[in-house]
Amino acid sequence: MTIKLIALDIDGTVVDGENNISPANEENIKKAINHGIKIALVTGRHRKGVRKVTEVLNLGPETALILNNGALIYWQGQIVWKDFLTEDEADGVIKFSTKIPGVATTIFKQEDVELHCNLPLDREWILDKLGVFEITPKKIAEKPEELTRENVAKIMLVTESGDKALEIYKIWPQKLSHLKRSRSYPYLCEINSSTCDKGRGLKMLCEKLGIAPEEVLAVGDGETDIPMLNYAKNAVFVRHSDDLPKLPPHVKVTPKGYHDKGVAWAIENYLKL
């Protein structure tokens, strides 16, 4: 069956750790677009965080955006799907995370991001880290009470290490155990509603567009991408090391050395343009 849609994770997939797109990825994505194939950016980022990618790839406002791990879907510039945390859920996560030393709590709303940083974590270090993902907090809260609880798409906890992130999940409150918890990077804890993930977001988009899973090529590189790789019947996992997560059996893994051009490899192998 012909590929009609390419669903692309951004961080570690389309871009590298410095938010740059390799020439190979750029060339092949543009080639696919020129052949009439739709592109969907499926990311943990918020809307302002995809600007560089859309500009470099010449993606217009009609491009599908599945944001905050599937909590928000934009199609042709309009919101067509929301799956947010409830106010009580957001309040519970904030009250838990802001009591842990060395954790920065970031609140993702529809357009903006808010930040609360706990010592001994350095605020400037956190802001530099967030800047790589094109995140500039609109509000930096001195007190947890100042953080927004309404209309929260995602809460992301930033730590100084992967070990710290794992510790947080080990002490996670039972009353919040129904929420989706994942890590796009080892030092990040990403919290979404119980029904929200990239796979469901991609499914909702495809149903709206009338595109079957067999007509989708999905490319990702991390834990948060596995649901969308599972949904798409054509899927590629971009290898960054030999330590691979458990993947659905139909998912292909890029060869070693393709960490910055995995999208190009996927397009060349599945589309034969």
From TrEMBL:
It holds the Pfam family Hydrolase_3. Keywords: Hydrolase. InterPro entries: Cof (IPR000150), HAD-like_sf (IPR036412), HAD-SF_hydro_IIB (IPR006379), HAD_sf (IPR023214). The keyword Nucleotide-binding does not apply. One of its GO terms (cellular component) is cytosol. SUPFAM superfamilies: HAD-like. The keyword Plastid does not apply. Gene3D superfamilies: 3.30.1240.10, HAD superfamily/HAD-like. Signal peptide: none annotated. One of its GO terms (molecular function) is magnesium ion binding. This is HAD-superfamily hydrolase, subfamily IIB. It comes from Tepidanaerobacter acetatoxydans (strain DSM 21804 / JCM 16047 / Re1).
